[in-house]
Structure to design on (211 residues):
């Protein structure tokens, strides 16, 4: 979710993807500047007290467990509030890493792992609140895993933001069909957009990828 810590690029990403990167990098930089300006003061206080980005990342774990409990207990608003807390922690660990110059590839991998866990919990909870959509929600999770693998192959961090529409569906049950369709459309577009570059990485000889 949060573009917390960027991964190193892979040379075989493909020409189309390389052309899109400067524009995306500008958008990411603007978003990071906003988050950094908003949270920098708190981040510096935490850093002075010995907090590190991975400490904040791991704080998400008990919150995710509480999310699971809230979903099973049918506490809709608590479930949504806890997801908001995870999003805040997710943003804060990235700000800590940048302000404290503590960015690392290991931290980026850990951040990506917790992003995936967070999405899994959101989709599980949504399935508890809307059992009729449990199967489509599970398919969304598998599609998001493919997106995660694409990120690893291409050395980028593209985020689906599917938590947004799914949470709207949790809060407004009548909107769940549209939320699932919107999330599926976003994921399909992201996966297909990067499919040529992904194939070039997987099959460089067959597709004539250039390093």
């Amino acid at each position: 979710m949060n573009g917390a810590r960027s991964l190193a690029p892979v040379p075989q990403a493909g020409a189309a993807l390389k052309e899109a990167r400067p524009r995306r990098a500008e958008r990411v930089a603007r978003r990071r500047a906003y988050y950094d300006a908003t949270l920098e003061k708190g981040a510096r206080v935490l850093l002075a007290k010995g907090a590190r980005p991975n400490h904040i990342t791991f704080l998400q774990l008990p919150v995710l467990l509480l999310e699971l409990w809230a979903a099973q207990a049918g506490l809709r608003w608590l479930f949504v509030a806890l997801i908001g807390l995870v999003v805040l922690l997710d943003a804060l660990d990235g700000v800590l890493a940048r302000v404290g110059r503590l960015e690392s590839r290991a931290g980026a991998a850990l951040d990506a792992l917790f992003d995936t866990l967070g999405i899994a919990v959101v989709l599980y909870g949504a399935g508890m609140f809307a059992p009729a959509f449990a199967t489509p929600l599970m398919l969304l999770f598998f599609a998001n895993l493919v997106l995660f693998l694409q990120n690893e192959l291409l050395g980028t961090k593209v985020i689906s933001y599917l938590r947004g529409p799914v949470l709207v569906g949790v809060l407004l049950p009548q909107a769940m069909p549209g939320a699932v369709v919107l999330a599926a459309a976003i994921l399909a577009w992201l996966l297909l957009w990067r499919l040529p570059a992904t194939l070039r990485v997987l099959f460089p000889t067959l597709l004539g990828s250039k390093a």
About this structure: Residues 148 and 158 are 8 Å apart (CA to CA). The chain has one domain: 11-203. The mean pLDDT is 84. Residues 11-203 form a domain with the Four Helix Bundle (Hemerythrin (Met), subunit A) fold (CATH 1.20.120.1760).
